[in-house]
Amino acid sequence: MKRIILAITGASGAAYGVRAAQILKASPDVETHLVVSPAARRTIAQECDIGVKEVESLADVVHHHADIGASISSGSFRVHGMVVAPCSVKTMSNIATGNSGDLISRAADVMLKERRPLVLAVRETPLHAGHLESMLKLVRLGAVIFPPVPAFYHRPGAISDIVDQSVMRMLDQIGVETDAAARWGE
Predict the structure, then answer these.
(1) Residues 6+ apart with CB under 8 A from 60
(2) What's the whole-model pTM score?
(3) Which of 46, 55, 62, 151 is most exposed by smallest CB count within 10 Å?
(4) Which fold, 2-149+162-173?
């Protein structure tokens, strides 16, 4: 059983987090721990045809964003990997500076200190030098910066095809197998 942390923050692109939750739910060997930020709750309501309660029902365990004493805030709690999708610049900056005042940034900080896979689907454009410096710092600390940039070699016919391809590639980074989209050469 792989324990995976999925965090959804308030950046535009809530569909990435929602779809990740759906794919993880369908994976029989995955236990999903979900954290949804307050801003993500608003973004999900604004952008998705699914409610927050339904997203939470996809997870095995739901943690409150302010519960910094939750299991996932400790390095002794074994977790295979963490994905933050979408990842706001605020969350990325908090993680980069070690500001672990909420559960998402604390759990991400634990992933870094324990040398476990951390994938940040940063959703911002254009980027200024401060954003890029934070990204570089995070890469040096061991995080994977994964802006959900769409690929077109699989000839997507719908937005869901684009989302599926990006989420599949994010989950590849933490060793969760899925065939949610076509792969190059297959």
Answers:
(1) 31, 32, 33
(2) 0.96
(3) 46
(4) Rossmann fold (3.40.50)
